[in-house]
Each structure stands twice: as structure tokens, then as C-alpha cells.
Amino acid sequence: MQKPSIPKGTRDFSPSEMVKRDYIFNVIKGVFINYGYSPIETPAMENLSTLLGKYGEEGDRLLFKILNSGDFLSKTDPAKIQEKDTNAFAMEISEKGLRYDLTVPFARYVVQNRNDITFPFKRYQIQPVWRADRPQRGRYREFYQCDADVVGSNSLLNEIELLQIIEEVFSLLKIKVTVKINNRKILAGIAEVIGTPESVADIATAMDKIEKIGKDGFVEELTSREIPKESIDELCSYIFSSKQSLVTTDYTNEDKIKFLKSWLLDSETGKKGIEELIIILSILSTTNPSLNIELDLRLARGLNYYTGAIIEVRSDDVPIGSICGGGRYDDLTGIFGLKDVSGVGISFGADRIYDVMEQMKVFPSEVTASVRILIVNFGEKEQNQCLEMLKKIRKAGIPGEYYPDAVKLKKQMTYANLKKIPYVLLAGEEEIKSQQYTLKNMITGIQEKLTVAEIIEKLRQ
Amino acid sequence: MQKPSIPKGTRDFSPSEMVKRDYIFNVIKGVFINYGYSPIETPAMENLSTLLGKYGEEGDRLLFKILNSGDFLSKTDPAKIQEKDTNAFAMEISEKGLRYDLTVPFARYVVQNRNDITFPFKRYQIQPVWRADRPQRGRYREFYQCDADVVGSNSLLNEIELLQIIEEVFSLLKIKVTVKINNRKILAGIAEVIGTPESVADIATAMDKIEKIGKDGFVEELTSREIPKESIDELCSYIFSSKQSLVTTDYTNEDKIKFLKSWLLDSETGKKGIEELIIILSILSTTNPSLNIELDLRLARGLNYYTGAIIEVRSDDVPIGSICGGGRYDDLTGIFGLKDVSGVGISFGADRIYDVMEQMKVFPSEVTASVRILIVNFGEKEQNQCLEMLKKIRKAGIPGEYYPDAVKLKKQMTYANLKKIPYVLLAGEEEIKSQQYTLKNMITGIQEKLTVAEIIEKLRQ
């Protein structure tokens, strides 16, 4: 007999987990809708030609590929098998893969449906994605992303709106967060003014690791990338000098912007980035004065993808990594043949948000099992009356159950307890005669005699 | 440049489709919850050992298999490749598959979590499933199932409750339906009394096809299955005789039960099946007098799976096949090592329900885009005031948008029209000075001057 199990890195969700997950999804969805975003869904499977080459070499490796149906083996090239070239062979027997994120399928959707879409297109999408990553704590092979993107508008009002959404979602979920913001154009400006414009990716990667590797490691890393010493020195004077450090929390956003303004004076791109940042921060300071937002030049997040703002959100209380992130990408749909469509988006990681909320115990107490009342089953004699009562209770919008078998009372009470059903209704022969039923509060243990109408009234509260 | 497309048999869902689909899911989910069912979710991927052999040979063939990660080719047995045995080779390079339905994963879940589950376990599950079927009208390779099952209770009250759920869901969705009901035990009883108890599957298969093949085809089919002529004659006398036909609508359920009672007098199994049917129909006639339910002996639905009641629902108006089905299965978890756990369940096919509702035009008119108001963007001068108004509108729970770019008014109006946004707010310099804004009703074309508070009041209605 096989012992049942599920693939590693995947999870089942029990009723009590589902209720909490639904709560998170509903909050996020509600905010998306309130801000005017419309839902779409795309298939779990995409053609591999859509997915490959969009997430880097590592991403390609982490795609789950689906075996072609039918007699796939007879159609393969025997040479490929002899060569033991797994990648080439995989392409012979597989032409579909599971989606890796929601952004590439969205870009594909936009291009494919461009004639039917009203631009600017504000869409949200809440669906699972799959990655053949090594499973570890907080990292799964199947997890949900909750994305909101705007395509077809260059206005910074979109960045601002997405940051407002971030504040509203986390405030509703009672998670204290710090939003980090950066701008790809500022990073490009820095690379320019230190004389190595082509090294922006190397610089960003090294800055992203500062916390881990320190100043020495940082200098070492850049040296190994063949960045000249004088460039590294200039960079360090802004990163590590106590007078104008761009990476500590000792300085306010305004201070940092001042440092940047004088430093990037000769870079048009850099100045554009600073200007974008100033507009975003200034409008938000009026509309969302309590948003905790911090300029952090170390923020990179797949830099080659973003072209403007880069955003990341972390919990102030639980060090679990990013729980939301996003940014502006100027040419995502270009890879599918639609040029000059700018987009900006954010993605909430529901699984990590769940973990933070569990750890902080911030799920509202009413987020539990929804059944409010169990009618005890005493047997066939009372059955018709019980079914009639149940019908009335449900009709009033109160989730209720009638225990299906006439087993011992104790067993039925245990069932109610384990399922956390707050009320149990006892309707024996006598009760039915008098139309006064015993309602037991399972938390306090108090019993009352009430009519059906009174019971419904009580449960409605 | 690649032209983007999606795998055949899969679909994207646009905002207008999503809103309607969500409506269906919410109705079904709401009824499930009201009847005391708890949600679970299982992973999209299951181990192939969980899935294989559960859906018959055809089902195994229709499973989407996932290629193992890493260098799978180096671990394969070269002999298997030489033999060109596709199936054996597939098992060498794939150990996971996409779920084919929600019932087998649910059985696996129950067995795996049996120590944490409170029985009877009433669960619902709404998730997509995947089948490598030949795509055709109304048949997709990815589609949603909405399942409700009770495991761990033999009581017929469960069958009754599921039939109540069916009536409530379709009544809320405004779809007129006929529920067909049958019982595996009655079919077994028939096979017994005509002297061929071992042929119950053959008989059921032939009866299932009566409408298509007629009496001659029916007799031919059974003859080819080596069922004796006298057995076939007896069967036909109940199936086709105008005096006691069990498969026409000329007779009521009561008539048919009367015919069956006299026919199956000598089969204990048959009598048990009749008794179950009588109890279900009799209780329902009290609790749900308007339910249109019809005993139909032709109903089989993967007979080898069901052991008691068999249920199927069809639209009275749109001939699209079954839109909901289910039944009692006495030993589903047995395959995973947990014996004697009886289950009964139903599954709604959301995709076909969608098609029926579209064709019947029964989606409520309020099931459309949710954005209620667009604030026109006149430029930076009015921006702060507009953002402030927008914040108030959203805070009142009214989904609203501020057009992100200060483009021509006509373009912004077209945007509102295409997105079916019912109101547009114009806040130019003058309006802001007077605090009286122009609200345009996009359907009637009527314009009014109102304060923000009045606008919110109006939109709330």
C-alpha cells in the first residue's frame, strides 16, 4: 500500500489555514478593486517559447516543464539522447511550462490582446506560480503572487498610487512595514559620474550585498570586476563616509537627495532619477503622511528588468525578507513585439505575509471557522423538524449544520468543539413539543431555552 | 520576433469575463459555507504514484506529466530509450503530474491528515484541474471544479444536503435545471435479477447510450457482451415496454419505483438501492418541494467509482451536457490505505455554468466592471485637490480612478466609456475654487454641480 505524500516544496492548506489565507487575499483584492484595478487570469501553462530567456539562465533552469502528450519519444532525435544533452533533449519532448511569475504572462497577455485593451490598463492578478527552487523555510515550489500593474502610462502618479496601495494593504493587515525605494536611473547616474557607465549592474549587485560583505568585501568585489580604484574610492566616499552616507538610516531622505544632487550634477540620467524620486516623495508626503518610506540605494531587485522606480517592502517586526516588491519597467512587452509600452507594478507575496501575520498574531479573531451552529441529531423522530429549523437558519444567512448521524451526544459535542462551532442546538421530543429549544453556548457553557426566531436573532449579532 | 500565443485548450480571462466568473464562484462558495463546508486547497502537482491508476487507462493517458528537474537524462536507463517505450520512459523522467480532478487529491489529503481531521469532514475545494484531452467546444485542458464532499458518514442526510445545495446554487444563478438521480445498487440489483450479476458495468454502459443507439443498438451491444437473450429480453421489458418503462418521462418517480419494487423483489442489493432512493426523494419532497428531480436508470457516470447514489444536473435550456454531478463512493480512501471511510460528493463545472449563463443572459446587470468614477486629469495645477478627492471617494468604499496622464479630455472620456465607468468627475480651476464639481453621468449624459460629499452620497446609492 502506498503511503500518500505530496511533492516536496508544495503544501496542502487545511480549513483553518484557508480561512486566514482567504482573509489576506480578500484584503489585497479589495484594495486593488477600490483603486480601480481589473482582474485577469492567465493559464497555469504557457508555451516554453513565452517563458524561456525571460528570467535569466537560473530562471530557465527553475521552470517546471511539461512532458508533451502522446508518443513523444518516437518523435525525438536519437542523436540528442546519445549526446546526453539534457537541455536540448528537454526541448524535444516538452513545449509547455508552468508559469514562473505573473509579469511575463501579463506582458504576453497585453501583446496578444492589445486591440481589445483600453490603455492605460490597470490590472490585478492573484494566482499561484511555480519554481523548481530548492525548498527551504519560507520558500516553496508553489506559491501565490498578488500583482497589480499599470501599462501604457508614463505618469509617476502610477508609482504613487501603487505605494498608496502598499500602505493601505499593510495597514489593513496590521503589519508595520518600511517601504524602501530606489531608482534605476540614479544607479545609472552613479555609474556614469564615477566613470564606469557600463558597470551599473556590477555596482548595483555589490551595493545590494553591502550589509553582508561590509566595506572591505564591497571594495574587493568591485576590484574583481575591474572597476578602477579612483571610481571605487569616489563611490565609497558617498556610501561609507559618515558625512554623506547614502546607505545608513542616519540621514533623512531629504539629506540623501541633497548629497545625490551635488554628486550627480553631470549626469542627465541621474538627475532625471532624482527628479522622479522627489516628485514621488513630495506628493506622498501630502497624500500619505504616515507612510514609512526610505530611499535605499542598495535596492536592486533584478535590476536589468527595471528602468525607473524600484520598490521593496519589509516587515518591521519579522525578518523574513521582502513581502512586496516592484518597480517601473519601460519595455517589457517589447520582447513580444509591442514597443514603447511602459509599465509599473507591484507584487505581494501572500505566503510570507501569512507567516508574518501568524508570528505577530494579528489575524482578527473573527477569522476562524464559519459554521455558527450545530443542530444535534437525536434520530429520525425529530429529523423533519430539525431540517426545517436548519433551513430557516441558513436562509437567514447563518452557516449551520445538522449532524448527519444519530450518534451519541458526546461525540456530536466533541465534533462541535473541534470544529470551533460556537453554538449547539438541542431539539429533543420535549423541545419540539414546546417549540422552545435548548441553545448551548460552547464557550461559556451557558444553556438557554429559545424559539427558532430568537435563536436566529441571537446568532445574527 | 515571436508572436505570442497560449497552449491550445487553455484560456486567458479578461476583466469582463473574470467579473462574471467571480460571480459564479462566489455564489457557489457562499452556499458551500452556508451549509457548513470548510475550504481546503491541495497543490497543483501531485506525485504520479498518487494519480496513476485512479482514472482508468484513458485517464492515465490524459495526465499532464512534469519533467523532473536537473539532469534527468543522465539518470535514465538507456535500454528504455532504445525500446522506444514512451510510457516506461516517461516514468523514468517524470515523477509528478498536474491534478486531474479534486477527488483523488482530496482522498489523498484525508488519508495523509486523518489524525488532524474531525469526521464527518465536510470540505469544499474550488481549484483548476488539467486534462490533456483533445480540445473542443466546451472542453478545455484547464478548467475549474467546485467540489463539496462529506467523508466519514453513511447517513443519507448527506446526499439530501448536497441535493439541497444543488437546488440553491442553480436557483441563485437563475439556471433552470433537472437533477437526474440513480443508484448503483439498483443497477446491481437489475443485473442480479436478470441473472448476470457480473455484467453490471456492461449493462450500465449500454443503458447510458440508449438515447444514441436506440433499442436495436442496445440489444446488439448487450448481445456482443455475451449476455443471454432471455436476460436481455427481461431487461427490455422494463426499459422499453410502454407499460412500465423506466427510462421515459411518461412515468413519475413513484411509478418507476413501483415497477422497480416488483422487479427487484429477489435482490437484497436492489431493494437497498430502492430504499435509499425512497428516503432521499421523500425527505426532499418536504424540504425542497420545488426541486425538479428525476429517477433515470440510464445515469452511470463512471460507475465503477460510485457505490450508492449517482447524481447529474442538466440545464433545461442549454444542451451543454452535465453542469454538476456526483455520488456516493464507499471506499475512495482505501486506495491510500484508509479503509471503511464512506464519502459522498458533488462537483460543479464552473466553465459550463458560465456558458449556460452567457447564453441565457442571466448574469445580473450589476456584474460588470467595478470602477464607479473617473476623475479627469487636467494637469498639475489641480492634481493635489484631485488626489485628495480620490482619497475621500475610495475611503467611502467607492472604487475610483484619477486618469494618470493629463491628456486630451476626449481621450479620457473614451477611456471611461470603454471601461464602462458610470460617472466622470471634472475638477478644473473654477470647480476647485467653488468646491462645486461637475459630475457627468456617462449613461444619461446629464451633468450636475455637486460637492464632494454630495458626490459620495450619490455614488453610494
What does this 3D model show about the protein?
The structure is a homodimer of 461-residue chains. With 461 residues, chain A is of the alpha+beta class. Among the domains of chain A are: 1-16 and 23-167, BirA Bifunctional Protein, domain 2, CATH 3.30.930.10; 369-460, Anticodon-binding domain (Rossmann fold, 3-Layer(aba) Sandwich). In chain A, 43% of the residues lie in helices and 18% in strands. Chain A contains 18 helices and 16 strands. Chain A has helices spanning 15-34, 48-51, 56-61, 78-82, 86-93, 103-112, 157-172, 184-193, 200-208, 210-224, 229-239, 253-263, 268-287, 350-360, 380-395, 409-418, 429-434, 452-460, and strands spanning 38-39, 45-47, 65-67, 94-98, 121-130, 142-151, 177-183, 293-295, 309-315, 322-329, 343-349, 373-375, 400-402, 423-426, 437-441, 447-450. In chain A, strands 1-5-6-11-10-9-7-8 form an 8-stranded mixed β-sheet. In chain A, strand 9 (309-315) and strand 10 form a beta hairpin. In chain A, helix 1 (15-34) crosses helix 14, helix 7 (157-172) packs across helix 13 and helix 8 packs antiparallel against helix 13 (268-287). Chain A is globular, with a radius of gyration of 29 Å. The relative contact order of chain A is 0.11. The mean pLDDT of chain A is 92.
List the helices and strands and how they pair.
Two copies of one chain form a homodimer.
Chain A: H1 15-34, E1 38-39, E2 45-47, H2 48-51, H3 56-61, E3 65-67, H4 78-82, H5 86-93, E4 94-98, H6 103-112, E5 121-130, E6 142-151, H7 157-172, E7 177-183, H8 184-193, H9 200-208, H10 210-224, H11 229-239, H12 253-263, H13 268-287, E8 293-295, E9 309-315, E10 322-329, E11 343-349, H14 350-360, E12 373-375, H15 380-395, E13 400-402, H16 409-418, E14 423-426, H17 429-434, E15 437-441, E16 447-450, H18 452-460
Parallel strand pairs in A: 1-5, 7-8, 12-13, 12-14
Antiparallel strand pairs in A: 2-4, 3-4, 5-6, 6-11, 7-9, 9-10, 10-11, 14-15, 15-16
